[in-house]
Amino acid sequence: MEINLFKLCSGLRVLGYFMILLVAGIIGISYYAVVFLTCGPQLLRGGFHSFLSFAIVIIFHVLLILLLWSYFRVVFKDPGSVPENWRAVSAEENLGVGSSLAAVDDGFERRSRGGYCIHCQNGKPPRCHHCSVCQRCVLKMDHHCVWVVNCVGARNYKFFLLFLLYTFLETTMDTVVLLPSFINFFADAKNHSSTPSNLALVFLAFVLNLAFALSLLCFLVMHASLLSSNTTSVEVHEKKGTVRWKYDLGRKMNFEQVFGTKKSLWFFPLFSQDDLHNIPALGGLDFPTRSDVEA
Ligand SMILES: [Zn+2]
Ligand SMILES: [Zn+2]
User: Fold this and answer.
1) Whole-model pTM?
2) May I ask which residue range the UniProt record assigns to the signal sequence (predicted)?
């Protein structure tokens, strides 16, 4: 049974590479429909329409660069792996953060507290989880994302959120830009004013962008709520029933735990050296709790 499950997970990995092609395909179709078919002819008309189309083309390219940059950073950045033979610093500290390792000896206790991974046969830092697709433990694992063929964890969560944000903005803009063409679709089809393949392409681009914009909006709202309470998708169930989540440091600090403190880098998939050095959560091995902050 377990072997089948692993085969299924490896299958998901293969599917991931197909997803990259799918992302490239959707971008290609949107690019052609928005830039060449919709804005291109308007640019040549002059006047206000020309100015508006020029602005749309510029914004389209800026968002495209930002979303591709964030995308490749999520795909290629290691979300964080556990160092070999990792052990918590001290038993006392472990008891404090509630993920005991050295303090307990029997296997059951270890597993129930999430301090040891039986698959990796290695210690498990707080907020770390084993991913059955990657077949390894991932630091502050959020989820395994088939769209980016990678796990989303401590070191690439910011890049993932930026990818969500820029893709949402891009697809929303595409939907608005393609809406008039979509409304005219049936009239154009009757009058034969455009080639059937171009009409089909605009139709497809509109439907795809609308579908993505709506589903990304749901994801964005969900992750904004997780970000504001310093919770991962995995921890949502763990958190249920607790009065106040132990990693909830207040909205501003929760945000900085993922995005860093340097405001000029908040909108780019980058971190300053100072932040990487001063914010342990970005490394994924150590996380301040509410009691640390309030103390
Ligand atoms: Zn593991
Ligand atoms: Zn994974």
Assistant:
1) 0.84
2) none
If you measure from the C-alpha of residue 105 to the centroid of ligand 2, how many angstroms do you get, rounded to a whole number?
Answer: 29
Per residue in 97-127, pLDDT tens? 444 343 333 333 333 344 888 999 888 999 9
- The predicted model gives 22-32 an average pLDDT of 92
145, β-bridge pairs: 150
What is d(CA 295, CA 290) in angstroms, rounded to the nearest whole number?
8
With beta carbons less than 8 A apart as the criterion, state whether 132 and 234 touch. no
Domain ranges of the chain: 21-78+157-212
| Residue type at 120 in one-letter notation | C
Q: If you measure from the C-alpha of residue 118 to the centroid of ligand 1, how many angstroms do you get, rounded to a whole number?
A: 7
If you measure from the C-alpha of residue 10 to the centroid of ligand 2, how many angstroms do you get, rounded to a whole number?
10
Q: Rounded to whole angstroms, how far apart are CA atoms 187 and 227?
A: 46
